[in-house]
Amino acid sequence: MKKSIFTVLNYMLPFQRVLPMHCSANRGERGDVALFFGLSGTGKTTLSTDPERRLIGDDEHGWSEKGVFNFEGGCYAKCIGLSERKEPQIWKAIREGTVLENVVLDSETGVVDYEDAAITENTRAAYPVDYIPGAVIPGVAGHPNVIIFLTADAFGVLPPISKLTKEQAIYHFLSGYTSKLAGTERGITEPEATFSTCFGSPFLPLPPIEYAYMLGDKIDNYQPRIYLINTGWSGGPYGVGERIKLSYTRKMTALDGTIEKAKFTPDPIFGVLCPDSVDGVPSEVLLPDQTWPDKQQYEESARNLADRFIRNFAKFSGVGEEIIQAGPHK
Asked: Which one, out of 12, 124, 300, 307, has a CA that is 20 to 30 A from the CA of 290?
């Protein structure tokens, strides 16, 4: 039902000059707003539910000429492996009134075992947004200062963080690349590459290019900083490398603007701008080829993913050459 209404809004809102978005959002103490786009399993809920910031919403928003606003009034968080240490706000939101799905309870104590995936890894907690301490009620805020595209790259070749130009933002918005992860869809037991236009392909009744160019107009008008963050693998593909540490990703979310002090260098294959330093993150982690023991294997894998991007993007018509050139190159 939630996604049915989201589909209706994806049709209606563009005619009112409102961009519907599959993203989470939060607000800082200074009123600065951040958006987190991404498919299930990439970290939208985890990263937007930040003790240092106030949650606006965790999945669906609109962006009008007045700012951003939440559609839902509730949250739907994955809770496999949930712990108070890693995700304190979500942990505390699970209380009377929260609906838990697919979790395993101790038959005697009734205590939930969040590590138990006997039913499925897709365990969920649904709760009102005001169960999150300090949530913005009502879920209305100003224009975004930062836009973050989240991807969980199972190939382990995308930089953990990179800065995007407007043209690159439109390219990656249309691409919507990530890896489907175990627990996000039925039948998925290990990550596989997928492209979901605008990070929400099933919910787009209008041609994707219309949403993409609406985003481009918003970028022109309000000048947010835009980053691509890989919450997937480093040092090799899934099964060989390791998942990028959540503690590193939190430091790389770039919301305070300190990352702009770094020197940025274009990635030779993907073209995105990679910083040479992020406070609290080892410098070698920022360059994916440095984490692979076999540099030739890294390059082969990176070019393989670049080719997937190019073949996927060929399906879009009416896209300007400047957008096409903003993507990866073989």
From this structure: 307
| Domains along the sequence of the chain with CATH | 2-72+139-324 (3.90.228.20), 75-131 (2.170.8.10)
The pLDDT value recorded for residue 189 is 54
Question: pTM (2 decimals)?
Answer: 0.90
pLDDT tens column, 296-320: 999 999 999 999 999 999 999 889 9
Is the omega angle on the peptide bond into residue 138 within 30 degrees of 0, that is, cis?
A: yes
- φ, ψ of residue 128 in degrees (nearest 5): -60, 145
Rg (CA), the chain: 19
Calpha distance 9→18 (Å, rounded)? 10
Q: How many CB atoms within 10 Å of residue 5?
A: 13
Q: How far apart are the first and last CA of the chain?
A: 42
Q: Please state whether 10 falls in left (phi above 0), alpha (psi between -120 and 50) or beta.
A: alpha
Q: Sorting pLDDT into bands at 50, 70 and 90, what band is 30?
A: very high
Please enumerate in sequence order all residues whose Cβ is within 8 A of that of 311, keeping only pairs 6 or more positions apart, or say none.
Answer: none
pLDDT at position 183 over 60:
no
Q: How far from 131 is each of 27, 48, 66, 100, 110, CA to CA, in Å?
A: 16, 14, 26, 14, 21
Smallest CA-to-CA distance from 31 within 132, 143, 148, 149 is with 143
